[in-house]
Amino acid sequence: MPSRMQRKRGEGQWALGYREPLNKNEESKKNDDGLNVRRRIIDIYAKGGFDSIDPADLRGRFRWYGLYTQRRPGIDGGKTAVLEPEELDDRYFMLRVRIDGGRLNLDQLRTIADVSSKYARGTADITDRQNIQLHWVEIENVPAIWEALESVGLHTTEACGDTPRVILGCPLAGIDADEVIDATPQLRDIHDRYIGNPDFSNLPRKFKTALSGCTAQCTIHEINDIAFVGVVNDEGEAGYDVWVGGGLSTNPMFAKRLGAFVRPEQAHEVWAGITGIFRDYGYRRLRHRARLKFLMNDWGPERFREVLEKEYLGYALADGPAPGGPRDQRRDHVGVHRQRDGRYYVGFAPKVGRINGDLLHVIADLAEEYGSGRVHTTTEQKMVILDVPEERTEALAAELEAHDLRVRPSTFRRQTMACTGIEYCKLAIVETKQRGMDLIEELERRLPDFDEPLTININGCPNSCARIQTADIGLKGQLVTDANGEQVEGFQVHLGGSIGGEFGKKIRGLKTTAEELPDYVERVLRNFRKGRNDGESFAA
Ligand code: SF4
């Protein structure tokens, strides 16, 4: 057994005095703050082209501005783990536009649409963290893209990298009739104070925040590094219950409650304290043990809260109540629903978040014609048009449906998510987006009357960008052996996962080739229907 001191040194925690980088990523961050790469992109790389980019910036610091090289087309998944990173790199980039709280106005939506059409071959994917991702971006165009985005109040700062990523918020904050608290002011406050702030630009790993008072609990607080969940205390005061240390990937853990009640005006300093603990005490030695969940797992919530109060806040937080469960099994905002002010919102579902520049223009035009111009993104790869008069909701729904943006989607369209996959992602082993779209169509055709809640989440590799462990049917991309003994694209199946309940069980031998995926899912669902008790949902 290593001694206590050896073990601490091994974790590379700054607060214990261990500042020397213990791996390449830490060294790169120590050599230069990722935020500094912006100047080099504008002054050097955009002028000199792809070949002028320093590799340490290309594969490291570019992420601080939402830029990843995409996968070179034509390299199959079997080579993903074998080739060197530079052999997988294309000369084009994915650019992630962060949309904190999912809030977009008309100018912003139209600007993203224009950028997509002009610089990204028309691509646009809504992610399950409310961002919009563009592809085929060339380094020469990045300054012009930033200029366009920033002129309407959007940016890509810390959209990726070991930083505080986009802050999730309910797309109906301030609008929903049932919400506990409108978290918009706190979300803006945290964004404006801390995003792009060098105090928090070198964290051990990515850091995900959610902040919401929505009773649907659509920001899925259980799987964020830090989440503020709207609650009302015994005195009738609205504030937040704080959850810390959630995360999925290859070692999934749900966040734990600190049991503290955070008043709205305290939210920013509690965020800074918890993020500071991660920065100072987080494990930096091994990338796969660096997320905050590992520290929380070792410390437990009581010690975590004690350190937060004593070392970071300088005062004790009041105890507070836990939130109730979500109001519905479906934590989304799809469909036509009444707002607090008597108008309506209309949530609609593209397939697996895939849209394009032209469609973004259509959506903007519809939001202008039928609503007030507000269009928000959700955490389920969907969008919501706000502020529609009741008498116009059906006309809007019909227009959206005419563009294959379903307001009353099938379960399969509504609850199937897919990550980026092999089309663009260098870590991917299999294709996901097109498979997800095909699967939706097949299941709609084969099981037209299946209408109960059922999540199908498709990932292109063992990472969990599309949250496989929390789906009823989670599909983890890998190579499998087909009936002819050939290695082909396929999926390991995880069954019975749910948010905040159990993680899906990986059952040995439960694998399917990609080609047989629709048959496989159909069989599972037909068997479930045959065997279920009355009223039992798939997740039960
Ligand atoms: Fe890429 Fe894997 Fe994430 Fe999918 S789950 S986007 S394949 S890293």
From TrEMBL:
Pfam families xref list: NIR_SIR (PF01077), NIR_SIR_ferr (PF03460)
Keywords: 4Fe-4S, Heme, Iron, Iron-sulfur, Metal-binding, Oxidoreductase, Thioether bond
Domain Nitrite/Sulfite reductase ferredoxin-like: 89-151, 337-402
Catalytic activity: hydrogen sulfide + 6 oxidized [2Fe-2S]-[ferredoxin] + 3 H2O = sulfite + 6 reduced [2Fe-2S]-[ferredoxin] + 7 H(+)
Start-end of Basic and acidic residues biased regions: 21-31
Enzyme class, UniProt record, top EC level: oxidoreductase
Transmembrane stretches, start-end: none
Nitrite/sulphite reductase 4Fe-4S domain ranges (all copies): 160-311, 413-540
Documented EC number(s): 1.8.7.1
Region listing for Disordered, in residue ranges: 1-31
Entry cofactors: [4Fe-4S] cluster
InterPro entries, alphabetized: NIR_SIR_4Fe-4S (IPR051329), NiRdtase/SiRdtase_haem-b_fer (IPR005117), Nit/Sulf_reduc_fer-like_dom_sf (IPR036136), NO2/SO3_Rdtase_4Fe4S_dom (IPR006067), NO2/SO3_Rdtase_4Fe4S_sf (IPR045854), NO2/SO3_Rdtase_FeS/sirohaem_BS (IPR006066)
Family stated for the protein in its record: Belongs to the nitrite and sulfite reductase 4Fe-4S domain family.
Physiological role: Catalyzes the reduction of sulfite to sulfide, a step in the biosynthesis of sulfur-containing amino acids and cofactors.
Name the UniProt record assigns to this protein: assimilatory sulfite reductase (ferredoxin)
Upper classification of the organism: Bacteria, Bacillati, Actinomycetota, Actinomycetes, Streptosporangiales
